Amino acid sequence: MKNDELFLIGEMNAHQIKKKVNDKTVAVLIFGSCENHGDHLPFGSDFIFPFELAKRVAVKIQNLIILPPIPYGVSSHHKKFYMTISIGTNTLISLIENLLESVYNNGVHKILIINGHDGNIAPIEIAARNTKDRYPNITIACLESWWELIGKISPDTFNVWDGLGHGGEAETSAMMTISPDLVNKNNIPEDTIPNLPKHIRIFWTMDELTKTGATGSPNNGSVKKGDVICRILEDILISFLLDMENNRWKYGLCL
Fold first, then answer.
1. Which of the four pLDDT bands, split at 50, 70 and 90, describes residue 5?
2. Is-contact 129 102, C-beta < 8 A?
3. Which pTM value belongs to this model?
4. Residues 226 and 179 sit within 8 Å (Cβ to Cβ)
5. Alpha-carbon gap, residue 56 to 242, rounded angstroms
6. Inter-residue contact 26 to 9 (CB < 8 Å)
């Protein structure tokens, strides 16, 4: 399928966009990062995969319009690794608010965020809640952390740590499926499972967990597992969008 048929706003002209956008349109925003994912995965993994996921969903669902992915995120906890590109928390909050408001002011009041990076989770929530307070009739949904969700839904898919890890089993598998040319199998680092508590969160920096930039078990990554990951996440997003459309994007007590 051609990209213009996927409704990638960055590749469409004004005439195409005006023909596409209507009161049923759902805008898809993608947030990632630019940082070390071990010597085997690209720095852009956190936006490359969500962007591909959005395009796969858009093939099967009408009325989606995909905005260009944001390739930078809050990555200060990765700064000890060379060439980490990070933006500040307040900067990202303001950026997200500006984007949400821009979409809203253009008549699109349904927004799906697909996030690929842990450091973006808190800024996305703050920006979304601020925007919802400002514009009560906007609906903002978010797939916050697919790498955690996939291990909870399908733990039997993975060999180690429910697939968790930065550049670990799940993330390596996902990239093997969508962009195998960007995965350097000769440079996959050894497994690193950090000793972290199960129920209490520690606000770590990445250099406290790994010497390579990767955690988890990238050696257990495979295309087969990546296919499972993509299928599950596609199904989740498609089911969500269809359910929301069937309910006219109403939820809670509004149903």
1. low
2. no
3. 0.97
4. no
5. 15
6. no
Residue 204 and residue 75: Cα distance in Å, rounded?
A: 12
Tokens found for residue 60: 């099967």
Whole-number Å distance between alpha carbons of 109 and 139: 6
Quick one: tokens of 195?
Answer: 């000793």
Which candidate, 8, 57, 3, 51, places its Cα nearest to that of 30? 51
Q: Are 41 and 171 in contact (CB under 8 A)?
A: yes
Domain that holds residue 43: 3-254
CATH assignment of the domain containing 24:
3.40.50.10310
Nearest to 71 by CA among 41, 39, 29, 102: 29
pLDDT at 187 over 80: yes
* pLDDT recorded at residue 255: 81
3-state secondary structure the chain: CCHHHCCEHHHCCHHHHHHHCCCCCEEEEEECCECCCCCCCCCCHHHHHHHHHHHHHHHHCCCEEECCCECCECCHHHCCCCCCEECCHHHHHHHHHHHHHHHHHCCCCEEEEEECCHHHHHHHHHHHHHHHHHCCCCEEEEECCHHHHHHHHCHHHCCCHHHCCCCCHHHHHHHHHHCHHHCCHHHCCCCECCCCCCCCCCCCCHHHCCCCCCCECHHHCCHHHHHHHHHHHHHHHHHHHHHHHHCCCCCHHHC
Domain count, the chain: 1
Encode pLDDT of 210-254 as tens digits: 999 999 999 999 999 999 999 999 999 999 999 999 999 999 998
Q: Tens of pLDDT along 98-148?
A: 999 999 999 999 999 999 999 999 999 999 999 999 999 999 999 999 999
